[in-house]
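Thread: quick sanity check before group meeting

JM: Hey all, I'm pulling together slides for Thursday and realized we never actually wrote out the predicted structure for the chain we discussed last week. Dropping the sequence here so it's in one place. If anyone has concerns about the input, flag it before I start.
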Amino acid sequence: MTSTLRSNCNVIAAVLGAILIAGSSLSIANAAEGDAGSNPHRLAAKIFKEHNCGSCHTLGSKGQFGYTAHGLEIKKQSLGCVDLLTAMTKLISVPEERWTSEQQAQVHDFHEFGCTQCHAMTSHGMEMTELGAKLRAAHMSCPEVEKTLNTNRSSAGE
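JM (edit): ok, ran it. Output follows.
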């Protein structure tokens, strides 16, 4: 595939992804304030499904996700979700022109993995988007989704 065609495909994928993310973000924000918000397991399952967490993660046990085959491949090449967020938080203080190629790849992954749906790198530090703030208020941060879905699954009626 030529670099121009690859670039065009990446642009199209990014636009389609943004459209899908916008739609699912509104749905989840409404759920955090509505019916699913009253049932933490149902809200966590909705977040997991609509944010496509299942493309890399499987439901596990003892409060932790497992990995799909795709997730295992990504894990070999990238930081995990929490480590990536930590790296991005530290990177805010580094001028963009001084980012290494590894840091640039991490920023790409931060966007690609959907982290920017809830987290925003700003000149003031790492902040929450509107969706992120609503989910945090509903106690549904990424670690809380993981914990909720992977502990006491049988008692949640699943």
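AS: nice. Strands lie at 57-58, 66-67, 119-122, 125-128. The two ends are 44 Å apart (CA to CA).
JM: adding both to the slides.
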